[in-house]
């Protein structure tokens, strides 16, 4: 992506555009014209597939694009080298758009509609964050054109938010106060549907529990050893017993990240990695205390030492019906994804590998889902933003209907026109919704009022991950 | 058993006997003559089959017999209603003979050579303590006759020791100082062999671990409950993990004595009952501390409370080669059990149910095993006596060769002539060994010297069960 | 309860009553007059507190009452000695009323408002089935008076259904076809509220899993033993792992009913008792198969043998909005429980021991709750009836508001006027609802139509407990 | 190591040597002269620190040395690229010497007497096999000189045996029949003592147990997942329960080599790696069957699939007192290691880090231990050789007394003169013992007779690892 050329391209557009007012149709038309450029940007990120806090190239490409459109870039914010805030305009209102760009480890795939791991990669955009980043950027640049053309007062901000996948990048940005003066935030996510819901998620918190014992030859002197793996298994045992005594909406899951090195040595180190979730942060914290006691009890009962490192923590998403309705109205106006014959052929082949199949794939991709109340069982660091600023989130059908996140099918479609078409649905909807927010102060006020009411009067934001420093090396 | 008639019977014997000295042969002859009487006494105990600390009848029958022979009886010693000390003579040396008489719960059998639970009983002499008690009494009365006849100075004591099976009766008697002035102790045990070995056992300690949680309807509100059964299982889990990290000679075993009352209620109470053993008391105490930590860790990790009650604790047996050799010499002189045709028929039929079969049952019952060094893996409260007084123990073939203790086969043979013949082998051997001890001060001195050397100079007796009161209701 | 005197008392009433028509008000008035008699009947059952399938006296008392009112009694139905069907009238429609009368083991209490276990009892009516039985009987007798007085055609049946608590008494009665010709069934349950809801429950199924291993002395030869308790714990372990992989609405809980007899013997027998529940019977059966595999896997992995006995199994309750609405209308007409000063004083003191307290206890007892959709997390054998006949169930405030079932507080209030007043609320509501059913064929038709629609066209009733014989000794 | 120069050096020696007979003293003198060369060879291997089946350089260096001394080299034997047999002479008797040369992964250290991981290495000779390989080679070349000089008939073989550490290299060589015609085998091992014992080891067998489940999002749809990690933990649970029911001499230990990849995904793959050991191969195989059932039971109980790969398996060492006595005599003649001031300074500093310290390090290094019966609790693939050929093994003090195998202290000393001095003790003792074997047919016959007697008449060799192909990539 040649930043300079892009700047010229944008400049040529902007010169005449500055002289005359732009309406919704102009914005949509501009995005249609730019579709190819942003598709290329998205695919460049898809190729990089950089992991959390290591997204140097991907973050840089987005920053180039925004800088070329005269955004002011502040980078390395909140102590996160790949985080940035790109701003345009000044004063109130302040409207934020979020852009993610990290990939997932351990899974790769080409843009083929059948399982075909990428020969050179160990990571992939299985959650579509390359589209997320490029699409949000497209929306931001479109709104910026509209603001200049129409002399709109206020500030537009594009937040480049790294490490959503297990890194809680946004939480550090919230904690650093970067959202304190924002009036509303718009965000989207790649999906297999087009929808703007009144949706929430589970608050979650994760930690690595590290146990240290005493090594000994496991055949010659096992009685002199104290097994750290025993402690990991004892903690797991008690955590599994705890399941029965948790509210049924809670979720707890773990892997053993270090289970000893050689069978003939009593392991003096072992580690497990736990996630714990619940719709309410307060309940989550209570459950967390109990989980901590399973770890302490395991250390006590196996003669080992335990220490834990909280890795990440996200609040649930606080929904905002006012904003969701506004977004849903615009999404309906924009419409869903239109498959051409090639898209349909791709989707049809890919759908053969899906567990739940949609009868009419093209119709499902084109459809806008009715707005609904939704308790998602996943988690996202958008949660912490949503308890700080009224936030609306939509989904666009960047994946073949029936596709689940974090699958090779998501990577595959994300590398094709299906992905970039879905991305443009999101870019358009977000741009038009942002325009509404700039033009309708009463909408911002209503959203704020609902936000205050939902949050409660005595709410005080506390990050679930506490005061830990960002785990910049968690993907190394 | 009519105590008065017995007294008369003994009296008739004693009157002339007092006038003339008795030698070894006379003692053996006396025991042969009395065999039927003592067999009847043993079978009376076999019929009662009373459990630990509840042996009122059994203890009473033995006391009657001893009182009829002019022993002075002190009963209810050491706070144990069924314990007693029967004494004859005065001054030094003091020679003790131990007599047990408690049965085992949960197993009953008639005197048949095939499995035939007793229709009216829930307990049985599966460890042969009825023979133990009656045989030791026979030996004591025989020695007493000899002492009077020969004007032997010194004191003979028969200790009636209740609740050997899990009740540690002798430990309370040792703790109360009842053995402090004794020079040597003789003891035997029913078995499938005739032997006097340099044998030791495992020290052991037991406790009930009681966990308390919070009851709740297990379907409606499991999240409000804290399961005490979870705690029991978590403790067991960590205890089982601990096995790998114990010396291989250690033994740990448990049952769950209370595992919740109804599945649809989260159990607010649960209990397990643990035994822990090791040849060395000091190592046992270290392992015990670790076991305690598994219980504490389980309580911590399951949100429950734990308390424990130590139930019993026995030291290992401290062997004494000097005394064992003396006893082995006498045992060899006395010889083993001689089967008649009926005995052999019974043994042959019973042996069909045994896992390990002896080719020539009659020969095995008649044989005296060579003296050997033996690490037994069981435990006995004779252990605590043996760290207080030089002690010798022998076994006599009261059971069909191949029979294990605590089996129906042991009950069965114990109710027949096989059992009482074996008992008389023990009674004779113990009587003759006691005579040796009275007559040979140098034997007592050598035994004491070996005892001091084995025990170590800085030895201080501490009961493994600590200062707890006797669990007089542990079998109710 | 003198049955003969009762018969005379009823007879005196009936003779004149037969001559003139009775309306709703007369029925209510009759029940008010009889309140004391039925309260006495209920308290007689409360005193007996008989356990499942052992309710000889309690069942007999109800039968006496019904026989005295000219019901035809068929007893010992479906192979259940304490089950009976009491019938009055003939022909269609057939309206059923259910009466339970079993108590719960392991909990007793006097009629005091503070914890006071009954000195002579080990069981108690902690689920209020004494009120259930007497109240339903009162309703049936009242309706029978009304039928005779008004020459109403059709059949009224009172089903005496034993062993609801874990015995699934009704399931055997359904399986035997005793409900096949019934048009509608009315039922109530003691509670801390007055309500008639569109409520369902969880289907459930229980079994005892019995494992057999090889006994061995746990210290001398543990390697020769195979522990049945190991198997129980291994099954529990895998069942607990399975929790994460069950739908969150599922419920699974267990106790260990036999955990070995003595620590020094490797247990050759051990048993656990499991309940498994889910809203859908089909899902429950799938989960059951997996639970079974944890048992089989545990036996395989521990070298033991497993066999299971299904103990009980109840379908979920199939709600019927048509009937629930009819019942709710009558309940609203009847009104709730009115506390006098003594009731309030009792309730106030008792409420101090409750976790969740109601601010105005008298108001809560008097209130009729709005009709609502309800997913109860408990289970009942009414479920199987409800998949066979359109069924309506109500609750009446027989307990102090805030009281949970299966608590001492439920026993206590059930032994006072609070309990019997609540019982009369139920008796009146059921009587009036039954009258509606006899008088309104269209109501029966609508209820049937809804029933068929909810059940599905290809429904085929299969008892979850299969073809097992009734476990008549499950409470011995 | 320049093979050609070495060849010349050896040649210069051999030319005159060929003309005159050599006696023991000449052999010892030759080894003293060559000490520096063989020390250099050992340190070259120490530097390489190549892992099992990857020892290309190390094997090559030993082959060069042997080829230069006119040994015939057959390489890549038994399908093992780094295995070789170097032969000299022909006909009977056939005397074998074993040479190992593989290092251990995960541990590195410089030649410093304090903990100092090697900056560039991830492996190290923590078991001293570099000395083993070079020392055995020195012995072989010395014997070959002596054979030629004295015209000794018979065959000398040096077996280059790779991958002793968990790779069971020798087992494949035994299985391929490479030892079938050998009369006796001599072997040594680096240690902290000088000793030739009548020693045995534990037979062992290892396998990786791989479980496959069904992946699912652990928060969104855990009920659709089947966790392979659950299966690993369930197997471990049952294996830990099995401990109580194994003979106490058995050893079982495991690590979890794959415990899931990310907490938010139900793991569809997990793996554990088990070792199981017992003094008797037959008992080991029985225990193995039971371990296998814990794995099968775990798969069944968790809804997963299991497969296992046996990784290695070694028989116990069959001792040979005849050969051990011969070796002990020669070892006593040769004497132990003599520390100079530098050695002692090194040993003294290093000993500060040892748990068990020797009072007089120099004396302990110089001492020859009395020959004793020894049940080692480790395992070695020398075991399989020892059931095929009468075998004698000695240890030499290449490590500071008090050092355990597989520690950094072993690597450190192995990189100094202490290591190479100890190596020469072994080289001299093995050379002289081999000479005895060539000169004393009666010694070979006696060793063979004892061997046959110990092995039993119906013995049939079966490798514990079955017919699997060598795991040539087990260390990649």
List the helices and strands and how they pair.
The structure is a homotetramer of 476-residue chains.
Chain A: H1 3-19, H2 24-48, H3 56-68, E1 72-75, E2 84-90, E3 94-99, E4 104-105, E5 123-124, H4 129-150, E6 154-160, H5 164-167, H6 169-175, E7 184-191, E8 195-196, E9 198-200, E10 203-212, H7 228-243, E11 251-258, E12 269-278, H8 281-302, E13 305-314, H9 321-334, H10 341-351, H11 361-366, E14 373-375, H12 382-386, E15 391-397, H13 408-414, H14 417-439, H15 441-455
Parallel strand pairs in A: 3-6, 3-7, 7-15, 9-14
Antiparallel strand pairs in A: 1-2, 2-6, 4-5, 8-15, 10-12, 10-13, 11-12
Helix pairs in contact in A: 1-3, 1-4, 2-3, 2-4, 2-14, 3-4, 4-14, 7-8, 9-14, 9-15
Please describe what this structure looks like.
The structure is a homotetramer of 476-residue chains. Chain A has 476 residues and is of the alpha/beta class. Chain A is 43% helix and 19% strand. The first copy, chain A, is built from 15 helices and 15 strands. Chain A has a 7-stranded mixed β-sheet. In chain A, strands 11-12-10-13 form a 4-stranded antiparallel β-sheet. The longest helix of chain A is centred in the N-terminal third of the chain and has 25 residues, at 24-48. Chain A is globular. The first copy, chain A, starts with a helix and ends in a 21-residue tail after the last helix. Chain B binds chain C through residues 105-106, 166, 202, 204, 206, 217-222, 229, 233, 236-237, 251, 253-267, 272-275, 277, 376-379, 404-406, and chain C through 105-106, 166, 202, 204, 206, 217-222, 229, 233, 236-237, 251, 253-267, 272-275, 277, 376-379, 404-406.
